[in-house]
Specification:
This protein is of the alpha+beta class. The protein has 6 helices and 13 strands. β5 and β6 form a beta hairpin.
Length: about 250
Amino acid sequence: MDQMRKEYAMLTQKGGRSVNEDKVLIKEFSHLSAVIVADGLGGAGGGAAASQAAVEKLASCFERGMYQSPEALFKAVRMANEAVLSCQTQECKMCTTIVALLLHGKQAQWIHVGDSRLYHFRNLKLETSTMDHSVPQMAVMMGMINWEDIRSHPDRNRLLRALGSSEAMPDISAPISLAEGMHSFLLCTDGFWEYVTENEMEKTLAASANPKEWLFKMEQLIKTKAPANQDNYTAAAVYVRKGPAAYFP
C-alpha cells in the first residue's frame, strides 16, 4: 500500500496585541491526524481560555474516535462548545472560532465554526475554502458585496456562530480522497487571511518546498501589510503526498 507523506508546520503570533488568544494544535493519533486552529474572543485573557478549552476538548474527542460520522463530529463540537461555556463567568462571556482538519487513511475532512478558515489546494491550485459564519459572508451570499470585500468590510468581525454561544452549529465537509496528486491545506485565523490574498497563497505555495517555508513566505506578507496594532495571527499548513511523514514545527 502506498504510504501517504504528511508534512506539517504551524505558527502563532500575538501581533500588536498584549495577549495571544489564538491556539493551534497538530496531533498524530494512531488512527487519525488532526490539525486544529482557534481564535478566542473575550479580552483580558478570556479568549485564550476559550480557545484552549475548545482545542483540548475537540482533540480529546477525536482521540476517542468521535469523527467517523457526521453525528459523531456534531457531538464533538457540541462537547467543545460546552467546554467553552463552562469557562464563562458573569464578567467574561468568552467564545472562540474553531477550524479542524482530519486526515485518516487516504481521506481528508474538515469542520469549522466562525471565521477561521480552511483552504484546500490540489496540485498547487486553490480548490475550495470554507465560508465564514459572519455578517459580511452573508452579504456576499446575498450579492451585496464581493468575496474579496470581506477583508475590508466594516462588520468583518461580527460573527454569526462561535463556540461559547447558542449558535455553535459546525459546517462539516464531505470527505475527499487524497490518493492522487499533491494536496495542501492552510488553516488560519482572520488575523492571518486578512493580509494574505488567495492569489498570494497560491504563489507562495508554488514557491515553497515544504509547509514551514510556505508559512514563512506568507508571514512576510503580513509583516509588510499589517498595522502596528494588528490582531493575533495563527496558521497551520499541511502537505499530503506519497512518501514517509515529516514535521516542520
